[in-house]
Amino acid sequence: MKHFTFLILGMLSFLPISVSGAEPQAPPPADHLLDVSLDIPRSMIRGSLKVPVRAGQERSFQTGRLVIGRVTVNGRETAFTAREGMLTVRPGENGVAEIVYEGTFKGGTPQGDKNYGVVSSTIDDRGISLTGTWYPQPEELERWKLTVLLPAGFEAVSEAETIERTTRDGGALFTFEFPHPAEGLSLVATDRYEVLEERSGSTELRAYFFKEDRELAKTYLRHAKTYFELYEKLLSPYPYKRFSIVENFLPTGYSMATFTLLGQDVVRLPFIVETSLGHEILHQWFGNSVYIDQEKGNWAEGLTTYLADHWYEEKKSKGWEYRKTLLVNYGAYVNSSNEHSLRQFRSRTDLASRSIGYGKAAMVFHMLRTMMGDDAFFGALRDVIAERQFTAASWGDFQAAFEKRSGKDLSPFFRQWIDEKGLPEVGVESASLRRAGNRYEITLGLTRKGSTVALDLPLNILFLQGSEKTMPVTLDADRKEVTLLVDEEPAFVVVDGNYDLARKLTADEAPPVIARLIGEEKPLIAVEASGIGTYQAVIAGLAKPEVRQEGQKGEEQTGKRLTDADLKASTVVILGADNPLIKRLFGALATPSAGFSLEIRKNPLNAEKVVALFNARSAEEAAAAFPKIAHYGKYSSLSFEKGRNTDKKTASSERGIIVELRKEPVVVDLSLLRTLAAVMDTAAAKKIVYVGEYHDRFSHHAVQLRLIQSLHKKNPKLAVGMEMFQRPFQKTLDEYLGGAIDEREFLVRSEYFKRWGFDYNLYKPLLDFARAEGIPVVALNLRREITEKVSREGMDALTDEERKELPREMDFADEDYRSRIRQAFDQHRNSGEKNFDFFLQAQVLWDETMAESIDAFLAKNPDRQMVVVAGGGHLVYGEGIPKRTFRRNGLPYTVLLNDSELDPAIADYIIFPQPLDGMTAPKLMATFREDKGRLIFNDFVAESPAKAAGLRADDVLIAMDGVPVKTVQDVKLALFYKKKGDPIKIAVVRKRFLLGEKEMAFEVKL
Ligand SMILES: [Zn+2]
Q: pTM of the prediction?
């Protein structure tokens, strides 16, 4: 869509005119007389400007590219200087100066950024559109009379309270009078206009539309009338006698005193009458009669945005959405390099300045209105109109008016919001709930950043029974604990869910939208060599990008490999649905079917950034659609066919900062309670059956074995996948199950006690059954060395050799999974895991590898059903392994958890087995250290049988029952084959004072 702007004709200094206290009287007649004629075939204007002068008082005029012919005072030629677009006259006597000039306006080409509605003045066979420097412009506000001679059949519009039309020399002579101090004049004329008239109260409304748009003109007049009724009621009577809506052959979107000038392609957009027309009409009050004191900051766009665009949404109960969009855009377009204060805003030059001067300023007026109430707010606006009409107003005038009406000192408020740049940030760092007598006490730890003033923070409490209550708090410190007492049991606190405060949105509130791509100064573009041709329009269109290639083939690609650090630091643009980077970040995504599609997703590695996924069928589709995406800033996904938009969606995001306090209790209907035997049939029908465990509970392993036995009875083509074994040891596992090696050898070669470590008695029955029945067992896990390294140093630290072991697809985008891992990380923060990103990477690698192993096995053995044995944490909500497997193969599955908390969607079944004791291997109750290949006793616990047998700290363990021992793993293996009460022979080397080392033997009763 086109952007609308209030046109500033030159920079004008403000001329104080006293109006307060004056008796109403007819304004003095215009004293600046401009007389012009047009030579359309030559795109020329010739004119004469008559202005009053005083002897010795220099007068200056902006002349731009006008050619000054002659300057006279009282009919006598006088000296003048004309340079750099300025004309200066120094009259020697009082009287009238006349400036004769001419100018050529072939124009038609936009000046500057075409998105911002600045269009050249033009005189050609389409018509006349003069909105720039087309006459010598004085520096002060003046009263004007303009006469224009045009060919017959022309209609013309200018700033005017009265318009007269006569004929002269066979042409049409128009006289426009604007008897108030005016900022400047413009002139629009064509012979294509049909003029329709309407009235709103005493105001004459006119539509100057091209004849073919006659019906549109009626629609515009009808809507204009409602806007006049609205603003006359809300503010004050319309400041002029007439108002015109003027269609232009150039793509303008301007508002001038007494008319608005809209391009033909603009007026034909269906939504203009609903929004922009009202905005431009409101400018008649703010900007076109109360002028803007430009040097002190432009307040008018924020105010018109607030009382027009925002007002219409508020009337539809969508004010909060509008305000949220303003804040989303601010976050997307404004950054530290382009941010400035409201006082520094003059006019929009780009999306950042629009987000500040329109968006943030609208929020400031909203906060003022919320703070002081409608009566005082609108009262103050009426005061400003009454006091500053036909003169310039500044933020200071508004501050004074609001202070007078509210009785408050608003200087801290204005300092924060008008002089400071940026938006403050508000957060909830802690929340707790407790019973307090008959009431509930909510305690919130609130944080504030970037504000020196107290912020009024609306809190909404939602109760479990469904009611809600608003409880505003004042955040007057950077950290504040607030305590709220409520009568009912609360479920949630929502902070500022209506967006009443101008603030930086949290990551959960800010949806991934196209604006965030457009606002990115330097996105990182990932494209494969084969895609460069197809996506040329995208690559060229994204400003100053760093283009990198990301290939699966490693060395064959010339581009650098993108590291996780690169991806995390940037907004990433991925070109092509087949780009391997998609598998690395999102696991897999469906290929869009549209000719051209764009989807914005959160950057899974950095919630502050986004990832833009482009896919195009051809270079032509990309070239046709890409230039249009900037018009869809608030959407998250778009589809185009041959450049025509076919679909658009915005991703959901949270409304307000949501804090959960308490959930509705869950209830189990005991009449539906079943036994394990009863769910076997349902489980049997699924291709994959996941059974979660606490690793050290015999009861859980008993359930797993029961399930495996039962399923095996129904379907002998069963397999078992186990988290406990790592992929490189599959061969050892196969050899053991196939009878090639015995259990002891299996435990040694699979490095079971080093890599898993839980007592093998827990898993032995399951493996014994598998071995007896010939059931394949699949080693699911990634080599522990890799997960440990990633957890410490991140994926970027892996060698190329190590990378070969990684899963080919990795989904980092599951936010529920991330927040669950985050909780686990926060709980174990002191256990040496320093970096959450690395911790998360290790978890994702772990789960993706297990999912990939399951998928690979079932792909190779499609007739097998599989039971997967893993810790419950890898299965809850399906987030660890199950969904990641399903993404790969789409096979039906079921999830059974043992002793889990009851929460909907956590699993399909939760099993509550009775506790079961189990025999475990005896222990020496000692700790060891390994030093230079020797295993040394470190310490003993009080009841250690080893200590009782006479072993001491620093003894070097060399053999157990005659078998050499070098590692803790060897000790565990030796003990595994002993029972409690058995004796075991332990040989050590003991260092004796002055006597050297001596080998000694002990018998330990376990
Ligand atoms: Zn505006």
A: 0.85
